Amino acid sequence: MKWVNFLHFYQPHNQQKDILNRIVHESYLPIVKGLLERPKARTVININGALVRLLADEGYDELLEGFRTLGKEGWAEFTGSAMYHAFLPLIPKEEIKRQIMLNDAANKEVLGNWYSPVGFFSPEMGINSRVLDVVSELGYKWIGASEVALPPEKKDLMGKSLFVDSNGDIDIFFRNKRVSSLILSASTRRAGKFLEETTDLWGSGVGENGHWFTVMDAETFGHHRIGHEKLLFDLLDDSQIESVLAKDLLGTNLSVEEVEIRPSTWTNSEQDFWLDKEHTKKTSGRSFILWRDPTNPIHKLQWDFVNYVLGLLKEKEETLDSATWDKARQLMDKALASDQFWWASTNPWWSLEMIEQGAFQLKMVAAVLCGFADSSGEVFTDKEQLPSEMTKAENYYRKILDQAFEWQRSGYIRQKHLDNSSTFMKKPFKERAPAEWYNQIALEFEDQMQKAADDRDFELAIKWRDALTKLRQGTDIYDVLHVVDELWSARSIPELKPFLEHDWSELSGFSKEQFRAFSGEVGELDKEGFEDWKKRRS
């Protein structure tokens, strides 16, 4: 199996020094050192220019030299992206182009000529025809997209064929969500277990000549999940998996399919394309809802503010001195970062600090443009009256904050969090599932627990044991990700033989404590009840 291992490195340009230092030492350095120790391994790396400059400014020379070596030796393929992690599908084409060109310039300056990307990563894997047009125009040969961007009728070809945009000349690699989730979720922690859990994929025609394209945040390995880089390296070392660069798959003898992508991000699911009244397959009504929700007044204010300041920037270009306008332009580049919109989505993401920071950055652009701040960004305190343009910017800022604080005070945010929970206020699984299926799930969890313990992966074994406890107690409703959904990400269930095909003597004492009777509570099933159940079923 060929595997394109895509790692996305991102931190905002103004990340706090202590947090950056922790991420570098927990995640970035161990990953890069591990890759350098594996000259046969191949990895695709996306790192935005703002982070590269931040690493250079803070003196992380060992890490940057590691990136350079990976590029120099051909062990890694770098991709283009947006300098400040702007959400590209929702900004004007000229701003998309500017973000990409700034990103390339910064990476080339710090990483040298070893940074020579032919592929592209759009932040949040946000993709639509506008993004494809610009990326193709700039000469990139391929772009990554979420699995859901691929029309359903083409899904069976993913991993067996290459895809090309039907409206342009750029190749598209679609992220394999299941394989990516299996790795990043830590539901498996060894290559052998991973191969076991993907057996059905190997047997479905995506074998020796097929490929997986996975995309994961680099911070997953070591920062979000301590020690999880061991699985990454275990997979890269496995003889049954050949890690390759995306560019190496281009021009191979794989068949090529034309596709018209669906606007999407890596947060979307299939149902997002079927919730509008027309049930159209290509709708973008819900594709970008975490960044621009038509029902969210904060999002509306944020985008109105963005468009107002962009207009002001164009209007003032000919009248301001170059130093002042350049300062405003640079501030605007940073103010387009996607974070403020995402944290205002309430779905379930929410942060007053990030919302205020985004609005303040836009206000500062206006302040420089209106002469209320100098080219260094220092605000003049002796101004008695705000210019009308600055008054409008101040009003946007205040309205955004007023709405955000009102939502926070009123309890609206807490209610939205509960509404977005997939489990809260629903019946526990033991009450929703038929007894036979509940018992089957208990066996599947026990099997996961036992396999992990046999591998001496006791942390994972405890995780599955605790998941069973939640099911038994009915406390599974408090999990953001339901424990049964998590099991689905680790294996295809049912994987074991059906519950009622077992003999009573085959079942462990542990599992018997988990079982429900045919119509009763967990733990009430005995041998007599089990045999009677089997007779009735037969």
What does the secondary structure layout of this molecule look like, with pairings?
Elements: E1 2-9, H1 17-36, E2 43-47, H2 49-57, H3 61-72, E3 76-80, H4 93-111, E4 119-120, H5 129-137, E5 142-145, E6 162-165, E7 171-174, H6 177-184, H7 191-197, H8 199-202, E8 211-217, H9 229-237, E9 242-243, H10 246-249, E10 256-259, H11 297-316, H12 322-335, H13 339-342, H14 352-369, H15 388-410, H16 412-420, H17 429-432, H18 435-454, H19 458-473, H20 483-490, H21 509-514, H22 527-537
Helix pairs in contact: 1-3, 2-4, 4-5, 11-12, 11-14, 11-15, 12-14, 14-15, 18-19
Compact summary:
The protein is of the alpha/beta class. It has 22 helices and 10 strands.
Structure description:
With 538 residues, the protein is an alpha/beta fold. It has three domains: 2-259, 7-stranded beta/alpha barrel (Alpha-Beta Barrel), CATH 3.20.110; 297-420; 429-537, no CATH class. Helix content is 47%, strand content 8%. α4 (93-111) links the parallel β3 (76-80) and β4. α4 (93-111) packs across α5 and α12 packs antiparallel against α14. The radius of gyration is 26 Å and the shape is globular.
